[in-house]
Amino acid sequence: MKIAASILAADLGRLVEEIRAAEQGGVDRVHVDVMDGRFVPNLTFGPVLVEAVRRATRLPVDVHLMVVEPERLLEDFARAGADRISVHVEATPHLHRTLRTIRALGASPSAALNPATPPEMVEWVLRELDSVLVMTVNPGFSGQEFIPDVLPKVRWLRERILSRGLSVEIEVDGGINEATAPLTVRAGATVVAASAVFRSPDGATRAVSRLREALRLGAQAAAEPLPAPGA
Ligand code: DX5
Ligand code: ZN
């Protein structure tokens, strides 16, 4: 299981220190939420910030594009140093081409699904993907409540990916904390994106180790057989 720290809730005035603390705390990736005020009702970061994040850390930088027509921006974000680029399937009409472009630019392609979007939307591009980003809140803001109805979608994707012998990651994003993370692992998630690492009053290291422990328990529960019906 991997943990991606979402900088949306970081203290941006101290961004470099915040990222270094998360890195020392043991996160695996940095997750940058790009919002355009159209696909989602909020405006955040552009390629210049991704460049600054790139300079601040050796960790992979995941760019989550919550923008309409993300295909217009791929080159700029790849050039800024994005290792992975997630595009929303609801925002790009030629998903296959968009994913191929991301790979051609040297980044890792990922498709994101809003809570109401069916997983079938990525079924015929699974081979083009390194990751599916399953939103567990409606995108736009940090600090929202986890939507448990999305869990069967994670399970569906997991089964499809395994049955086709692929190794596509499943990342969950939104409302991830010690209580919800184990549910996502049980359903088949392999990466969690969370702002909890930056919000934690006792620091990133403690937040990461609490989240890891919760993920470990979730993985353990997933390995145990389900109780017999009626038991
Ligand atoms: C939501 C973003 C998430 C968000 C996660 O639109 O895509 O990455 O920053 O924040 P939390 O963990 O607070 O839900
Ligand atoms: Zn995100």
Order of SSEs: EHEHEHEHEEHEHEHH
Question: What does the average pLDDT come to?
Answer: 96
**Residues in helices, as a percent range:** 25-40%
Distance between the termini: 30 Å
- Give Rg in angstroms: 17 Å
Per CATH, the superfamily is Aldolase class I
Description:
- The relative contact order is 0.16.
- The protein has a single domain, classed as TIM Barrel, CATH 3.20.20.70.
- The protein has helices at residues 15-25, 47-56, 74-80, 95-104, 151-163, 181-187, 196-199, 204-223; strands at residues 2-6, 29-35, 61-66, 84-88, 108-113, 131-135, 169-173, 191-194.
- Strands 1-2-3-4-5-6-7-8 form an eight-stranded parallel β-barrel, surrounded by seven helices.
- The longest helix is centred in the C-terminal third of the chain and has 20 residues, at 204-223.
- Helix 2 (47-56) packs parallel to helix 3 (74-80) and helix 6 packs parallel to helix 8 (204-223).
- It has 231 residues and is an alpha/beta fold.
- Helices cover 35% and strands 19% of the residues.
- The site of D-xylitol-5-phosphate has 21 residues, from strand 2 and strand 8.
